[in-house]
Amino acid sequence: MHPTISTDICIIGAGPVGLFAVFEAGLLKLRCHVVDALPQVGGQLSEIYPKKPIYDIPGYPEVLAGDLIQNLMRQIEPFHPTFTLGERVERFEKLEDGTFHLITADGTVIHCKTICIAGGLGSFEPRKPAIENLENYEAGKGVYYMVRDPETFRDQRIVIAGGGDSALDWTIFLANVAKEVTLVHRGTTFRGAVDSAEKVKALHDAGKVNLVLSSNVTHVHGEDALEAVTITANDSTARTLAVESFIPLFGLTPKLGPIGEWGLELEDDAVKVNTLDYSTSVPGVYAIGDINTYPGKLKLILCGFHEAALMAQGAYKHIFPDKKYVLKYTTVNGVPTL
Ligand SMILES: Cc1cc2nc3c(=O)[nH]c(=O)nc-3n(C[C@H](O)[C@H](O)[C@H](O)COP(=O)(O)OP(=O)(O)OC[C@H]3O[C@@H](n4cnc5c(N)ncnc54)[C@H](O)[C@@H]3O)c2cc1C
User: Fold this and answer.
1) Ligand 1 pocket, 44 CB below 6 A?
2) What is the rounded CA–CA span in Å between residue 150 and residue 334?
3) Whether residue 13 has its Cβ less than 6 Å from ligand 1
4) What b/e string do you get for 74-92 counting C-beta neighbours within 10 Å, with b at 16 or more?
5) 200 in a structural domain
6) Which of 205, 223, 250 finishes a domain?
7) What is the percent of the chain where pLDDT is above 70?
8) 171 CA distance to ligand 1 centroid (A)?
9) Pairing mode, if any, of strands 157-161 and 100-104?
10) Fewer CB within a 10 Å sphere, N or C end of the chain?
């Protein structure tokens, strides 16, 4: 097998954690190649919520998810990482000398000394409600399982369905963008954050959003594009609402995808790691960010950043077992280039 690319660390996943891993590895002068199944970098932040503000990144009181990804890309520029985007890593082979081959669905072969899996939720699929003909209105015709660009909904009448954080957060955000927002939830209490639920109730009391509880969207209607949805209450009363867009936000089905078949020790569909350096059960293979699990794991970006720093140390020791690592502050040493 002839590798197309050769590198020190191959990072699977170009989400925030994978990108920051390039920085931490770069400080140790380790070269990185990053592969992602999606056509763009940024993982969940670019794919699911690029225009949402994040409030718990240290040093940023507030930062848009898309801007955080842009900043991470700027931060890793000095290390000249290379990327293979739009290709899912399917296979992994350990070679006799302890190095690896990773093979993508398109046949790209990456030869690397270590692997850092930063695959997040894996290959994720939105959970779709069981509504007849829903698929007829996908692909820009009125049914959206993610909000990529809120401007799509400017001055529209929209129905959002769901009771979790995404449904609540987008209801709050789109209340200032869309002409009319209706949130439909099958229960009476929300699963999402309490303060978000309170904000939605306050918007409802102020007449800025419609709240339809104990109900489900049961039918979709329209000739070429979506024109209306039917909302059926738990007591079977139904009404039809004219809308341009319907956004069912019932979460993502986390699917580890091929990573689950590589013989790594798993727990609850996540890769088990040692918190000393976030190594997996296979020497030379590390897992950081949302994809890993260990006692006390928090699926937060800032935790993934911490894991990236320790992973880079582990990878360095794996590649150079005889070299002594000395911690150097960036304030003292600056950022070396590769
Ligand atoms: C609506 C929403 C709001 C959130 N708000 C916050 C917040 O305020 N603060 C916070 O800290 N966190 C928040 N999170 C969680 C945060 O987004 C995740 O913790 C973070 O994205 C994890 O980053 P990651 O790099 O580990 O994985 P991801 O961002 O999931 O990126 C993983 C990447 O790996 C790729 N991949 C997977 N398998 C393969 C494969 N086999 N081959 C190639 N590529 C592969 C995927 O395509 C994906 O792009 C939020 C999440 C959501 C959904």
Assistant:
1) yes
2) 39
3) yes
4) eebeebebeebeebbbbeb
5) yes
6) 250
7) 98
8) 21
9) unpaired
10) N
45 and 183, same domain (yes or no): no
Regarding the beta carbon of 244 and ligand 1, being less than 6 Å apart is answered no
The tokens describing 21, both together, are 């891993």
Question: Does residue 4 carry a pLDDT above 90?
Answer: no
> Confidence class of residue 95 from pLDDT cuts 50, 70 and 90?
very high
Atom of ligand 1 nearest to the CA of 302: 11
Domain that holds residue 315: 4-124+253-333
> Which of 219, 250, 281 is the last residue in one of the domains?
250
- Same domain for 84 and 158: no
Does residue 15 line the site of ligand 1, with CB under 6 A?
yes
Residue 164 CA, ligand 1 centroid: distance in Å: 17
* pLDDT over threshold 90, residue 205: yes
- Please state, in angstroms and rounded to a whole number, the distance separating the CA atoms of residues 334 and 338: 13
3 pLDDT higher than 90: no
Distance 71 CA to ligand 1 centre (A): 16
Q: Is residue 338 part of a domain?
A: no
Give tens-digit pLDDT for 241-275. Answer: 999 999 999 987 767 889 999 999 999 889 999 99
The pTM of this model reads 0.75
